Every structure is written in C-alpha cells, then in structure tokens.
Amino acid sequence: MSESLVSRIKPVLGLDNKWWWDQAAEGVLAIQRCQVCQSLRHPPRPMCDQCQSQEWDFISASGKGTVCSFTVLHHPKFPGYDYPLIIVLVELAEGTRITSQLTGCEPDEVDFDMPVEMVMQRDADGFQLPYFRPSQ
Amino acid sequence: MNSLHNKAAIAGIGCTEFSKASGRSELSLASEAVVAAVTDAGLAPSEIDGLVSYTLDPTDEIEVARSVGAGDLTFFSKVNYGGGAAVGVVHQAVMAVATGQANNVVVYRAMNGRSGQRNGQGVSGQIVTSDLVHWSWYQVYGMLTPGSWIAMIANKYMNKYGVTAEDLGRVAISQRNYAVTNPRAFGYQKPLTMEDYLASKMIASPLRLYDFCQESDGGCALLITSAERAIDLKQKPAVIRGITQASTQGQEQMTSFYRNELSTLPEMELAAKRVYAQSGLQASDIDAACLYDAFTSEVVMQLESFGFCGPGEAKDFIKEGGLDIDGRLPNNTHGGLLSEAYIHGLNNIAEAVRLIRGESTNQPKSIEHVLVSSGVGVPTGAMILGQS
To answer: For B84-110, how does the pLDDT look when each residue is reduced to its tens digit (9 = 90+)?
Structure first.
C-alpha cells in the first residue's frame, strides 16, 4: 500500500479532549489550566485533581522541554508510521509532561535530558499534531 | 484489614495445553480448564456456585456455567485491566467465600492469544469513552503495543540505576532455565544463552524479543473455597494469607507517565504494604515468588516494590542468582509468562499453588510462603499463599 494512502490512527474525539486537538489544528500546543487554583494538567481531564473545580482554560505552551524518557520502536510496524519510531516523554518548561514523537534525530542520538522543542507536524491528510525535535 | 487472612484457599488448579494455535474456541478451552480445576479439587462441576473472569475474557460466566453443567450461581463477576486482574479474580472469589456469597468459586481465563485476538492490535471506532480517549493520546503517535508502553518506564528505571541489557537477559535466562524442564512450557527443552538473548531483535528499546512474554492459546482455572472446607478436599490447600487489589494516584493503564517518580511501581508498593500487613509477614518470610512477568523489566522493578532489596539493588540481587532455584527467591519456577505461556497471569498463580503443594517441576526445598503479583503498570494486586 502506498504511504500516502495510509494515515495514522486518529484520536477519538470527546467532550474532554476535542478542544485540545482543535488547538493543535490551529498550531497551538495547549496545556489545560484550572481556573480556580491555576494548576496545569495533561493529558486533559474535566476536573482538577487538586481542587475539584471543573472550570478550566488553557495556556499555549512555549514548546520548550527536555526528554524525560524515550523508546525507539522497531517492531511491529503499523501502517501510517515511520520506523524506527522515536517516542519521547517530554518534560515541558511549564512543568507538565507530554508523550510525543521525536523528529530530526537519529535513533541512536536521542538521550535523557536532551533539550527539545515542539514542531507542529502536518500529515498529508491535513491532520496536525505536535512533534518535538532537538533544540536548535 | 485482617478480614481475608486465612479465610479461603485455592483447592484446585486446571490448565489446558498451551499452544500457538489451539484450533478451538475460547469456550472450549475455558470449559476444559474449569472442569480440570474442580476435578483436581475432588468436586463435581455441579458444585460450582460462583464464577469470575477478566473483562478481557471473551467467554461470559453463564456460557461457562451451561457448558460445564455448573450448579446455580450466586456469585459472578469480572475484573478489569488486563493482566492486572490475575490476583483480582481470586480476590473477588475470596471475598465471596469469606462472606458466604458462594462456596465453590472458579476463576478462569481462556484465550486464543496468538491465533485469535492478539494484544496490541489497537482499537478504534465511533464510541467515545474516557478509556478510549486515554489510549488515543498514545495511539496517535504509534504507541500501540504493551511493549511500547512498558519500554518508556523500563528505560527510565534502567538509566537511573545503570541496569544493562545483560541484567534483563539474566531474568529471561533464569526463567528459561526453569521452563527447559517443564513439559507444559514453550521453553521446554529450549535453553537460552546470553549470546542468544543479546543477538535477539530489538523491539521497543531497551526491550528485545526475549524480554517479551509468549503469545499463547490456552486456558487456566482455579477453584477457591473456604480454608476450612479445603482441608477436606482432595489436594493440599494453598491458603490465602493476604490478598489485595491496588491502584494509586496518577494511575493510567500502562502509561502512568505523569507521576513525579517514574523509577518505581507505586501500585505494587501499595499491594506489598497491604499483603504484608494482612498476612503478618514480611519479605524475609517469602520463600518463592511468581512475580508478573509480561516483560523482564517488570520482574526487576518488583523485587524493589516488594522489599526483597533496596532501590537500584535488584540488578545485583539477580546477578547473584537470587531468582534461581537455589537462590534467595526462586521466581516463576515454571518459566512464567516469559517462558511457559501467557495466560494473563493465571498460570503463574497455578504455579504458586504447585509450589505450596510441593509439586513444581522445579520444586525448591522448604516452601512455606509464596508471593504472587498481577499485571505491572496497570491497576494490579498481590497475594501470599501459605501452607494450611
């Protein structure tokens, strides 16, 4: 099957997460923020686990962070993804973490605490999601 | 807290053949395993009045009940979270027996885990649940398999404590050495060397092929009854000294990546604290273990969760032969999920019962207490079995 015909598995979109993907489509890496106690959280959830408020907004992340952990996936190879696939757990400058893909880096060069920055990936089908690359 | 201490026992175990292509339905496998477990206990299927399985099991309790000719059921239940349910199903049965809801409860898990529904095939669809939203954060990036999720935590832990590929390899080899003599095991008569281990294909770094468990077809079942009644049955009972489920703050299924500390297993530490308190025992009282081993790294980390050594010391514990038959803690003496078969942890519990009975293929001398744990990285549980 040709690469261009196969796309990644898309997220299910519900009331608690669709807004985040809408922001990604606009080029924004969003971090949910409690409107009462101001604590940040990710992945998004409807209630703040610190103060139990369901009032929230979000901030636009700087996109700067460091690699907290990572794995390089070799097998099995699913259609819609490029292998070896570098998956990173990024500790954002704002303090929350996000699971993402590292691009522009050789698999044997990814390392713990490596500074990275967000780059918005746009797939052939127009779907957008945040990737990270080594800080430039 | 002490209410389940010594209240119930595992009085029967049953397993089908383990294979890569059973050619049979899961109902057929479940029925065989369930009948084998009650027969082992010296009971008839008509005496079954409770049935418990995993939410992931495709065969409902009443299908099994009709199939095997069970009696009237007064207790039936399913436990969520994949292999995290292994101790959980026994926990349900113990609570039912201890509170008089049922007398003879069979827990079972039967799967065509290789020829049928394999793990890590991903999910998609129109239905939106909070669980599917959770998985979608990872699937969108191509993290679709248990190995990919476990690798993230394993890598962090290994980096922090300088754990090497050879350290993981020692777990795989220790368990394969047990499987080599176990005719039920995939690893039967197939020794594994460190050279084989290191040469095996990298799947999800730092995890190689031999860090992964088997994919298996087969079924297992256990009969749980009261400790009192178990004494009168056919087999030597494995009395449940303590049993608990455990899920902790920040818990996700497989991807608890957002806790402050990523080099520990908080849910397993909670399980440890509770089973030790309930049983009045401590790590030094445990003679052998069946630590859940879908991946080698899970065994390493659990040695620390259950207090067999301090943080970062598990690699040395293993290097000194701690998991081997003459070591401090013979572990997964049947080969475990890595080298016997992967029946979602129920085959590990069956082996723990054999160790109490003195019937393991690799029976260490003098076994008083055996520790068993459920799935790692998910809501889980643990129990301690002892002599009656």
So the answer is: 999 999 999 999 999 999 999 999 999
Domain count, chain B: 1
Give the closest of A43, A68, A76 to B137, CB-based: A43
Q: Please report whether residue B168 resides in a domain.
A: no
Count Cβ atoms below 10 Å from residue A75 Cβ, excluding itself. 13
For A62-136, the fitting CATH number among 1.20.1260, 2.40.50, 2.60.470, 3.40.50 is: 2.40.50
Judge contact between B12 and B238, C-beta under 8 A: no
Of chain B, the end-to-end C-alpha distance in Å amounts to: 21
The ipTM is: 0.94
Domain ranges of chain A: 13-60, 62-136
Structural domain of B263:
8-117+213-386
How far apart are alpha carbons A117 and B298 in whole angstroms? Answer: 31
Q: What residues of B act catalytically?
A: 292, 342
Interface test with A, best of B118, B132, B134, B136 (most A CBs within 10 A): B136
**Of residues A14, A99, A112, nearest to B141 (C-beta):** A99
Phi, psi (5° rounding) for residue A89?
A: -100, 110
Given CB atoms, is A113 within the 8 Å cutoff of chain B? no
Q: Does residue B147 lie within any of the structural domains?
A: no
How confident is the model over A64-104, as pLDDT tens digits?
A: 999 999 999 999 999 999 999 999 999 999 999 999 999 99
